[in-house]
Amino acid sequence: MTPEARAERVIRDAIVRHGGRVAVACSFGGPSGMALLDLVQRIDRTLPVYYIDTGLLFPETYALVARAGRRYGIAPVALQPALTVAEQDARYGAALWERDPDACCALRKVAPHRAFLRGYGAWLTAIRRDQSATRAEIEPVADDGAGLVKVSPLFDWSEADVWAYVNAHDVPVNPLLADGYPSLGCIPCTRRASADDQRAGRWTGFAKTECGLHHAPAGRAS
Prior knowledge:
Helices cover 37% and strands 9% of the residues. The protein has helices at residues 3-18, 31-43, 59-72, 85-92, 96-99, 101-117, 159-169, and strands at residues 22-25, 49-52, 77-79, 122-124, 141-143, 149-151.
């Protein structure tokens, strides 16, 4: 079975198991998320697509959201934190991400994500085993650690598989990927880096490699 066929099966199984209670996460940063988005649109265009709008994303990321909306006829839902960047600065001090990036991610990413997913049974994500050591043992279906099922249809895809799919289906991707950014997140916490490490360039100077959305057990979930 091809990587694409396996991914399609995982997506279809999730839809059958959870009905209309499945949402699709896409950062509009990496190519994997765009490949997943395209796959889902070929299977079920009714699934809601969302992204976490921290208020600190690159202009190119927002532009890709709009481009994908036109391409697929969808309106991606922007999940926004309770505090604006200015309000966060006033409450926690300026540039919290420079002092405590975990706290910043918890406020701007994890909290709005969990709030949005209340009422859903599962969410689809494009993380892959080959992206980093912290993702090396992910399963296609797992407990997300917050009471929901996290489905990773591209769990066993390689970087080459992703780009082969993107090129074969003319999937739009973030132009910054061709400008020295192997991974894209918030502007203050993203740098150009070697493409040999797909998570390089994120949270430079910290041991941090994840924003907090993917610290779930690897065990199987139903």
